[in-house]
Amino acid sequence: MELIYSRREKIVGLFVISIIVLLFSTVVLIGRGKNWFKSYVTYYTVFEESYNLQENADVKFQKASIGKVSRIDLTEDKVRVTLKILEDYQSRITRDTTVTVKSPTFIGDEYVAVIPGNSRAPAMDEGEEIQSIPKKSIEDLLVEFQVEQTAKKLSTAVKNISDITEALRDPEGPLFTVFEELEAILSNLAEATAKTPMAMDHVNTNLVTINKIGNELYFNLTDLRNMLADVAASMQRVKTALANVEEASYDIPAITHSTSLGIDEIRGAVESTDRIIQSLKENFLIKGNLPPSPEGENIDAGPRQ
Question: What is the pTM of this model?
Answer without folding.
Answer: 0.40
